[in-house]
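Re: beginner question about structure tokens

> Can someone show what the tokenized structure looks like for a real chain? I only ever see the sequence side.

Sure, here's an example I had lying around. Input first:
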Amino acid sequence: MYNSYGYGSYGTTASSTQAAAGIGGLIAGMLGFFIFLIVVCAAAAIVVMIAKMAVYKKAGKPSWAAWVPGYSSVLDCEIGGVDPRWVLIYIYGSFLSIIPILGGLAYAAAAIYYCILVNVSLAHSFGKSTGFAVGLILVPFVFIPMLGWGQAKYDKPTPMNDFLFGKKKA
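And the corresponding structure tokens:
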């Protein structure tokens, strides 16, 4: 089809307009969902940090430290009786990811072990079971408030057996 200027006419049809509207609606829906997820995750993180303040208070540590990323990890180690060198391995181990495949796998293994070690030790230090530690790992926004605001009392550092640094003297 040619218009009066001799050029082809490329008008829009109803189906292409509907498709564009459908794609636009899909993008808007996905954007709204991602904004919702960000808000929910931020709220959960704030609840965890406030509950962690209560955990630190029970353990006799400064509660403001829950908001300081590296220092709170060191305090988690102290409360659980874990060697604080694990924090350095966890933080600086990410540089292993420079090495293709094996570096990333080694760092992931160290990070997972660190997470298990700290949470099991933390749970045991408050007289909780290893099952409670699994909850601390998988759903911290539920179990950290239970630890901080619940009936749990801090006893003493009770570390899990650490195959790398051994059991820290409490």
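Each token stands for a local structural state, so reading them left to right follows the chain. The first helix runs from residue 14 to 58.
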